[in-house]
Known about the structure:
The strands form 3 sheets. A 3-stranded antiparallel sheet has the order 1-2-3, covered by helices on one side. A 3-stranded mixed sheet has the order 6-7-8, covered by helices on one side. The model has no long low-confidence stretch (mean pLDDT 93). It has helices at residues 5-12, 62-75, 80-84, 88-94, 103-123, 134-141, 182-194, and strands at residues 25-30, 37-44, 51-59, 145-146, 151-152, 159-165, 168-173, 201-205. The chain has 7 helices and 8 strands; from the N terminus they run H-E-E-E-H-H-H-H-H-E-E-E-E-H-E. It has 2 domains: 5-123, Sufe protein. Chain: A (Alpha-Beta Complex), CATH 3.90.1010.10; 134-205, Fe-S cluster assembly (FSCA) (GMP Synthetase, Chain A, domain 3), CATH 3.30.300. It is α+β, with helices and mostly antiparallel strands. Residues 31, 34, 36, 60-61, 63-64, 102, 105, 108 line the site of FE2/S2 (inorganic) cluster.
Amino acid sequence: MKYSQKVLDHFMHPHNIGKLELPDAKATEGSPACGDQVSMYLKVNEDSKVIEDIKFQSYGCASNIATASIITDMAKGKTLDEAKKLTWKQAADELDGLPPAKMHCSVLAVDTLRKAIKDYEIKHNLASEDEFKKTTIVEELKHIIYPKVGEDIVSLKMVKYVGFENGVATVDIEIPKFDQYRQNVADEIREHLEKYDAIKKVEINM
Ligand code: FES
């Protein structure tokens, strides 16, 4: 697998690594794609809502460490609202790209950052737990990367239908029967959606 020099630099010498004592917010997120985990810790200025410090601990691959390193660099000095808008594509671009099969590693880094921001907002009554809707499923599916090309399955128009009724989430996917990632995509959909309490059953048609 070919990595850019920037990925290698951030992997060998990660920025913002470690843990903050008494952080204002924190989050740990796991990747359904591989089981790796990242934790992030934030120090936030209460008046300006600027992220003054951010650290991470990684329990994962080289891309996991590199993307957590770059995303924490990008988030530091930004307000929570600005940091929330950072995307996994920006993180991957900032690293001069990632191999397609490793794009999910940058999804994990961005998801952890967003979860830590959400933790701050909930603690400070700036946000409440999201109400579950059908659009929540679509948003979640945007975090599933088709490893062959390194794009998410919604952007690739592989998702043909999403439904949610009586706790049953239905997802129709267009993917050829012989596709080597068919089972992998189905497993990821299941793992991404089963973490929601509102979803009792996941039905995938493909
Ligand atoms: Fe798991 Fe990279 S392979 S985050």
